[in-house]
Amino acid sequence: MIILVSSKISQADIHASLGKPEYSYFFLMKDFLPALEQIGTVIQVRSRDEIEALHASYSDQGESVVFISVSPPHQTPLDLKCPTVSLFAWEFDSLPSVAWDEKPQNDWRHVFAHISGAIATSREAAGLVAQSMAEGFPVIALPAPVWARFADVCPESGWTSDFGPRSFEFAGQVIDSRDLKLNPESVAHRPYSEAKRISKAMLKGWWHEVRLPKAQAGVVKVEEESPATRMVEVDGIVYTSVLNPADGRKNWVELLSAFCWAFRDEKNATLVLKMTHNDMDLYRGTLLNLLARLSPFRCRVLVLHGFLEDPQYLQLIKASSYYVNASSGEGLCIPLMEFLCCGKPAIAPAHTAMADYINPNFAFIVKSSLQLTDWPHDPTGMQQTHSHRLNWESLMQAYRTSYATACEGLRYQILSRQAREHMRSFCSIQRISGELGPFLQRVTASCISKESQE
Questions:
Q1: What is the DSSP letter of 264?
Q2: Which end of the chain offers a freer environment for a tag, N or C, measured as fewer CB atoms within 10 Å?
Q3: How confident is the model over 110-129, as pLDDT tens digits?
């Protein structure tokens, strides 16, 4: 079988695309590639013409060919001669069913009616597709097979809780709450512009210098120095979250405030926020004003801005004690899955895609309730679906309970071992390729059958 695959974002532009719409689909494609390579010959493509040319060439050689579009359904090419499957993530309890902007593909039912099948990254999303289409439409629910990349990280017996010093390497900007001059009185009731000025003053002594080149054609550009690699030191119980601060569904403000309140008197608790966005100005003012208003607190907050290479990311995972997710909905949440594969227990809700793999055997469940919302790419803003409202008190208590568990030692090790074992069966390459292979064969066989009848 020949498997053509594409994503809107490529390896060449992923660094500059952090935080942009659909940037995470690149990582989704990257994680599915090893499973796809177990099924057939995988070719990454970039254009509609390339898809059609390869389909024609390999079909003439007697090969079965399928194209997998790793993107939201409304961005999937339609009416290709090549059998097309949409691989997508979705975190709401209904599918877009309105053709706004006079574009039929914005109604996902139209998209599915013009392609050959769908792969959803959660059971909830796959069920929505099945409900919206005629009986027999090919759809399957499969998570990204991330287990293989982390299979050897965690000891089979699980991690023991570690309060000692450890470190990870990072080439980016680091905001450390212990280096800031936090004063709630300095930002209270200030206009935004004044609060922004004060937030910059908090960073005095930390913020890097910038070079101002000579103006060209009346325009002055600010070029920042490339940050040097540094070792970031942590100790105690470390909570980590990887998120896009521009995505309101991630609830990062609530995640941080619950942490600071839970551990305002605990110096051995650290929160690491790895921000996946290319513009620090997007969130820096909000972050520093929030920290000032939450002060004084003895716990520590570290914010990482920059791209983590794979070895650095693995060091961060090993230095962490828990992963934290406080989102109102997830199409998959690959970082959460990766930490669990490494035997790091979690604090997370058990809704949307997370309901497929989060359970109390290795996670502290955060409560939530349904609330009306809109589909994120719907320009009308009409509230036609639901997300999950975070219960802040539940999150704060989960922090405290998880910390007490880490102090127990043996209980933490049990959680770690159970996380590793569960993810091995949930997202291994063998499991995903074993289900995906027959599914793709059915899709291509069905398309060949339809062509022969026409």
A1: T
A2: C
A3: 999 999 999 999 999 999 99
